[in-house]
Amino acid sequence: MKLRINGQVRDVECESNEMLSAVLRRIGLTGTKVGCGAGQCGACSVILDGQVVLSCIKKMSMIPENAEITTIEGIGTPEQLHPLQQAWITYGGVQCGFCSPGFIVSAFQLLKGNPSPTRQEVRDWFLKHRNACRCTGYKPLVDSVMKAAAVMRGELTMDDITYHAPADGNYYGTSIPRPAAIGKVTGTCEFGDDYTLKEMPADTLHLAVVLPDEAYAKILSIDTSEAEAMPGVFKVVTWENIQGDNSIFMPVMHSRSTCVGFEHQILNSEMVYHRGDVLALVCADTREQARAAAKMVKVELEPLAPFENILESLAPDAEQIHPDHPNMYIEQPLFKGEDTRKVLAESAYVVEGSFHSQRQPHLVIEPDVVQAYMEDNSLCVRCKSQMLSSTAGLIGTGVGFDAVDMRFILNPTGASFGYSISPKTPALAAAACLVTERPIAMTLSYEEHQRITGKRAPSYTNARLGCDKDGRLTGIEFEIAYDKGAYSEVAFILIPKGVRFMGTPYTIPNALGLSKGVMSNNAYSTAYKGFGAPQTCTASEQLMDMLAEKAGIDRFEFRYKNVYRPGDLNLNGEPYDVYPMVDILDKMRPYYYEAVARAKAENTPEKRRGVGITCCHYNVCSDASDHCGGCSGTQPGWHHHQLQHLAGYGPGL
After folding, report:
1. Residue 525 to residues 274, 422, 426, 482, 639, Cα–Cα distance (Å)
2. pLDDT tens, 216-254?
3. Nearest to 33 by CA among 284, 369, 289
4. What are the strands of the beta sheet with 68-70, ordered from one edge?
5. Which pTM value belongs to this model?
6. Predicted pLDDT at 173
7. Do the Cβ atoms of 262 and 334 come closer than 8 Å?
8. How far apart are the C-alpha atoms of 354 and 116, rounded to whole Å?
9. Residue-wise over 603-614: b if at least 16 C-beta within 10 A, else e?
10. Among 5-9, 152-156, 251-255, the least confident range
11. Which residue in 342, 355, 260, 330 sits closest to 546, CA to CA?
12. How far apart are CA 73 and CA 362, in angstroms?
């Protein structure tokens, strides 16, 4: 085909059913990103004959000869930024940056047809064209469009929207640009899949994963013969080929745990424990060949009745999911102050309830991408990770390579929000590299990414809370159980959060609590923003509303009366690092009552209006190293510090 791409006529060879995004990326225009691959996230946005289109679902057969296409590379360059690109840098539009090219391309077409949009029109445009962002909260994106529009109308200059360093050198509180911002807004920054396309050698093997159709089953057989006969296939790797002990070493470093933390295999051998387990890896010359062959791997399973939630796996007659530990494998108790049975019996008001918080996927725009290769006798793994320096110690024994000779390189990352603490996908690529003795590249589809990676743990809570006649909290009793899913990963960090954050940020003098970690056949849970605290707030904030109503006190004033103040201690008898809640609520009070007044004025039988409020506080350790082995580990540096102890050890640890 002849296409006019970014003003230049290009001869392009392609298949009729190939997607436009794949063609653009193959000819070097990797600023067009592919996230979901289903036309839902907007990362692949380009302009086709004056219309914003989602190129990951636009087949070449649908594109006319001589069509005009504009990508991010045709809008501006690092040396000559477009006002949109400069505004994205200055006003916080670029954060992880994976979605930035798609947003900027989309906004470019918006301003071409509407040079003076309102903020709502900008939002409506992005919604219409399915531009999704997980980092910014969208306000900085709208800010960026509005500033760029002002430059394009001649009301501002490029210098006006360019960041200038303060004369005194104090950058605190300023909008200093991110170091990689220019590359991200121009599409020149190489994310994981871009590196595969541009930098990996010609003999690279591409991986496709084989996933089970069941959540819980016995593996009877895995037949790879037909798949290995497929075109381009070099090897189908199963657990029998793994050179190490095939385990992901995430120890449950908790004195009360009955689970060691060796139950998560790289490739499953005898059992399927959830739908994200990987049974085999197809290694082929191209991604398409690997995926075609993966469909030909014959897996015979004996399905078992899965435990779909921990209410089932906690039942008295529930069978044990893993053979070496019970389904409930950690119980962390809490005792504070006086006997809560007596305290609550004597309290003026008491409320109780059962609460549930759901499983939550991280929903990053960029699915997981990993490369692995040998260089100077080192096993090099490129990936996204929030525990980069510790990963060698977590997978070295499993893949059978000395951890001190493994090198991990952080790819530019299209967000994580916690899930990349898990070493699962680096382990898959590293194992395949060692088995095949070839460079490896693995790009998960979005469905595969969702199935394989960890999630926020659901929780179930029973609790009751009391206060005196003046509304002062007297005591709390609670039991919270986290659904850890199929594996115990990071359980030793999560479970103590239940007894640390329940009832935060309020002063509760008396408490009796229990936090549990429980197995199910769901996706295993891992770190997520707030890690363990949102589940406690789900219960305690509803209890606060219920108790305020029962005591006849406005929910705002009830919270104000009970938030901690200097000198107050948390449920574990420890002081907080900071005591900001009174000041925060003092500043919030006029806004709250303004909202209440507006809700009352606008409330009708047809459209009910109300105002909600919630408080939370995520305390951190002031010095992570002082708490190794004892602290509940709210600070990311803490569990990194713990696992750093493992990084220098190889097979045999």
Report:
1. 12, 10, 18, 9, 16
2. 999 999 999 999 999 999 999 999 999 999 999 999 999
3. 369
4. 8-11, 2-5, 68-70, 45-48, 51-54
5. 0.92
6. 86
7. no
8. 51
9. eeeeeeeebebe
10. 251-255
11. 355
12. 29
β-bridge partners, 464: 352, 477
Q: Write down the residue that tokens 């093997």 correspond to.
A: 205
DSSP string for 623-637: -GGGGTTTS---SHH
Burial zone of 365 (CB within 10 Å; 0-12 exposed, 13-18 middle, 19+ buried): buried
Give the pLDDT of residue 625: 28
Cβ 98 vs Cβ 415: under 8 Å = yes
Structural domains in the chain plus CATH codes = 1-189 (1.10.150.120), 311-360+456-640 (3.30.365.10)
Of 101, 90, 98, 105, give the one whose Cα is nearest residue 50.
105
**Hey, what are 363's tokens?**
């929903």
Residue 313 CA to residue 326 CA, distance in Å, equals 10
Cβ density class 321-333: b for 16+ within 10 Å, e for less: bbeebebbbbbbe
Q: Span 31-57, mean pLDDT? A: 98
Ordered DSSP codes for 517-551: EEE-SSPPB---TTTTHHHHHHHHHHHHHHHHHHH
Cis peptide before 505 (omega within 30 of 0): yes
Quick check: 354 and 460 in contact, CB under 8 A?
Answer: yes
Q: Return the ∠ at Cα 449 (arms to 444 and 454), rounded to 5°.
A: 145
Q: Rounded to 5 degrees, what are φ and ψ at 493?
A: -90, -40
- Cα–Cα distance measured from residue 266 to residue 161, given in angstroms and rounded to the nearest whole number: 49
Q: What is the reported pLDDT for 628?
A: 26
Place of tokens 């075109």: 231
Joined tokens for residue 117: 């949009």
Angle in degrees, CA 618, 621, 622, rounded to 5 = 125
Q: What are residue 217's DSSP bridge partners?
A: 272, 303
What is the helix (H) or strand (E) element at residue 109, kind and residue range? helix 100-113
DSSP 3-state assignment of 217?
strand
Q: Are 232 and 182 in contact (CB under 8 A)?
A: no
Q: Pick the closest to residue 274 from 521, 610, 566 (CA basis).
A: 521
**Given pLDDT bands bounded at 50, 70 and 90, which one contains residue 206?**
very high
pLDDT of 639 strictly over 80:
no
Work out the burial of residue 258: count CB atoms within 10 Å of its CB; fewer than 13 is exposed, 13-18 middle, 19 or more buried: middle
**H or E segment to which residue 4 belongs:** strand 2-5
Q: How many Å apart are CA 432 and CA 283, to the nearest integer?
A: 8
Cα three-residue angle 515-481-449, rounded to 5 degrees? 120
Task: Give residue 148's pLDDT band: very low, low, confident or very high (50, 70, 90).
Answer: very high
